């Protein structure tokens, strides 16, 4: 690991200044991703600014009936919060589907959003990778890519985003709040992650040096009838092969509102707008769920080694919606 300076910030402005004055500085939250990448030489910050002493943790009510989750709230605390569990159960399920108890006790909400891809070539300094070294090439295209993207990928990068939590946040239309030395700002999660395009190293719409302060879940998205399901290669301690976060609002036997987001299939949480459009104002039947899932997966462009994800995503959307509607045994 390369030598680096360490500074602990106790005020948001101090943290912003400590990062702004050193081009190689990075925020350190739980360190569960950043420190791993530093050990492997993938990241080499010259200064770490520890933000765990900032008063940015905790979950509070928002005036619109939603919730605001502070950026340094641990994944464990966010998942266990009674109002997160009651108003946004899919978020609790998504967080608990990730990593391990020990990691979730350290990992924070802000750090989870900004964790880097688990593409093996990204972590392997001997291999070309456009995300790590722009312009060097993408080893996964002709290499091992069975767990890579099938939606919204580009010829420059086919990696997936690894966060479970972000998939549920995408389904609930979360908004990321941040601070810079020029003032505060917010970005809807739908625009937080940049489309992969020609510069896969540019991952988010955050301004340079911005500190994430919180994630807000709008009151309009509150739905106790929501669910997160994750398919993975082993029962725990594994990233998603495909995951689905969904919420269903049925009134008088008709779908009044529906929210679906997919994980493990794209460079960012994938909001399934096409599937949602097929379902709104229709009767929630198994057939309708299948048609909706097919509408979403029409856009898929699998690689030679990951076509199975298209079938898996299609089936998982149907299964989760069936569970939420109580139609899973209708087949
Ligand atoms: C073995 C293992 C298994 C895992 N499995 C899963 C899984 O199945 N699902 C899943 O979703 N995750 C999984 N994870 C990832 C884990 O959830 C992340 O490592 C963690 O959420 C990152 O949070 P952190 O606070 O430790 O971030 P850090 O490692 O401290 O930081 C990560 C990045 O975010 C930046 N950052 C952190 N906070 C802020 C902020 N407030 N503002 C601006 N920048 C910030 C840092 O500078 C750094 O670039 C796993 C990790 C490990 C090690
Ligand atoms: S898929 Fe992306 S992260 Fe993986 S090797 Fe290609 S450019 Fe790098």
TrEMBL record:
PROSITE patterns: FAD_PCMH. The keyword rRNA-binding does not apply. The keyword Oxidoreductase applies. PANTHER family: OXIDOREDUCTASE, XANTHINE DEHYDROGENASE SUBUNIT C-RELATED. This is Xanthine dehydrogenase family protein subunit M. Keywords: Oxidoreductase. Residues 1-222 form the FAD-binding PCMH-type domain. Pfam families: CO_deh_flav_C, FAD_binding_5.
């Amino acid at each position: 690991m390369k030598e680096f300076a360490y500074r602990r910030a106790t005020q948001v402005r101090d943290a912003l200044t400590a990062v702004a004055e050193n081009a190689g500085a990075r925020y350190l939250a739980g360190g569960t991703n950043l420190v791993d990448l530093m050990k492997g030489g993938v990241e080499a910050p010259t200064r770490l600014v520890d933000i765990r002493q900032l008063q940015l943790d905790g979950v509070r009510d928002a005036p619109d009936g939603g919730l605001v989750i502070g950026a340094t709230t641990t994944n464990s605390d966010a998942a266990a919060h009674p109002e997160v569990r009651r108003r946004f159960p899919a978020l609790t399920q998504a967080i608990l589907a990730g990593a391990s108890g020990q990691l979730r006790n350290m990992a924070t909400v802000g750090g989870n959003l900004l964790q880097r891809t688990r593409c093996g070539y990204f972590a392997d300094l001997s291999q070309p990778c456009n995300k790590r070294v722009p312009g060097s090439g993408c080893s996964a295209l002709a290499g091992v890519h069975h767990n890579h993207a099938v939606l919204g990928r580009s010829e420059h990068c086919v990696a997936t985003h690894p966060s479970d939590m972000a998939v549920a946040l995408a389904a609930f239309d979360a908004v990321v709040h941040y601070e810079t030395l020029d003032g505060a700002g917010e970005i809807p999660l739908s625009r937080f992650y940049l489309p992969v395009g020609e510069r896969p190293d540019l991952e988010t719409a955050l301004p340079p040096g911005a500190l994430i302060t919180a994630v807000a879940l709008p009151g309009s998205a509150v739905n106790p009838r929501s669910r997160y399901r994750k398919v993975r290669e082993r029962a725990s301690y594994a990233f998603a092969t495909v995951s689905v976060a969904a919420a269903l609002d049925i009134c008088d036997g008709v779908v009044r509102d529906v929210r679906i987001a997919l994980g493990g299939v794209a460079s960012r949480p994938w909001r399934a707008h096409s599937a949602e459009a097929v379902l709104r104002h229709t009767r929630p039947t198994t057939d309708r769920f299948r048609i909706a899932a097919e509408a979403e997966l029409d856009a898929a462009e699998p690689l030679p080694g990951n076509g199975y994800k298209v079938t898996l995503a299609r089936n998982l959307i149907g299964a989760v919606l069936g569970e939420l509607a109580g139609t899973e045994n209708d087949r």
